[in-house]
Amino acid sequence: MTSASWLWIVFTLIAAAAQTVRNATQRELTAKLGTVGATHVRFLFGLPFALLFLAGVAVVSHALPPRPGLVFVPWVLLGALMQIAATALMLAAMGERSFVVAIAYIKTEPIQVALFGLIFLGDHVTPGMGAAILIATAGVVVMSLKGRAGGPAAGDIKPTVLGLSAGGCFALSAIGYRGAILSLHDLNFVMAATFTVAVGLAVQTILLTAYLLARDRAVLRAIVLAWRPSLFAGFMGALASQFWFLGFATATAASVRTLALVEVLFAQGVSRFVFKQPVSAREGLGIVLIVAGVALLVWTY
Questions:
Q1: Mean per-residue pLDDT for 85-92?
Q2: What digits encode the pLDDT tens for the residues 257-280?
Q3: In angstroms, what CA-CA distances link 196 with 13, 108, 154, 255, 266?
Q4: How far is Cα 12 from Cα 241, in angstroms, rounded to an integer?
Q5: What is the C-alpha to C-alpha distance for residues 262 and 290, in angstroms, rounded to an integer?
Q6: Does the structure show a pLDDT above 50 at 2?
Q7: Fewest CB within a 10 Å sphere: which of 55, 109, 214, 266?
Q8: Would you say residue 65 has pLDDT above 70?
């Protein structure tokens, strides 16, 4: 494996770390702003940073942003709309279960990403990658099983439905954004990824701002009043998106989203040390499986 071919691993690890911080910040904002308001924060306050990233890439690379064709539009709309739905579902799931277990539900997405990637983009999955996806996802499933600590009440499937639905939407969003990046046919993958981030965030900002103006202007006022934590969440969201998209530009969505399961490990640290939420032995076993699956993915890629 050449040094360049390892770039997607670096991009994904940085993105996962940044997203964990952003998720934790958004979780705290949900109590003040509600699910839609906290969802909008990552887009509204992330867009200015995405535009700064785009300007920086243009200056450093001495290149203008690409001129997308018509095929770019449906791909980027799929990515943007599914990401809005996924973020809202994720925050709702976090309100039902502990931070780390909610993330575990959501991270069942790699199998869905692999399937959607094969169908829509022709991204093939090797036997080694398939085994890695299954092992890591098994770890997520083990973590998601009802345990003694922090489990849902018997018969309460709402957290599970919310988390799995969020995972499915994130999977479709990843496919949409990778399709958008590939449709640009730009040899400068950094510019293609950065341009797609900016366009996606612009679409999301316009849609959610219009929705809140029409339905709940009080939430917009609350977002403005909470600008300090919102600004930080927006920056971390834009930073995470930048590196996710760089990953999508250099590797299959299934590979990126499987390696992204390390976010569960980051979330475990946040859950234990920030939110003071206990982690059961069963969740520990799930973490071991996730680490094993991720290690296999990196070794076989």
A1: 82
A2: 888 878 777 767 766 666 666 667
A3: 20, 25, 43, 20, 27
A4: 10
A5: 7
A6: no
A7: 214
A8: yes
Question: Quick one: tokens of 240?
Answer: 């995470």
Q: Which amino acid is at 238?
A: A
What is the chain's length? 301
| Residue whose token pair is 């450093």 | 60
The structure tokens listed for 65 are 């942003």
Which residue type sits at 297? Answer: L
> What single letter denotes the amino acid at residue 191?
M
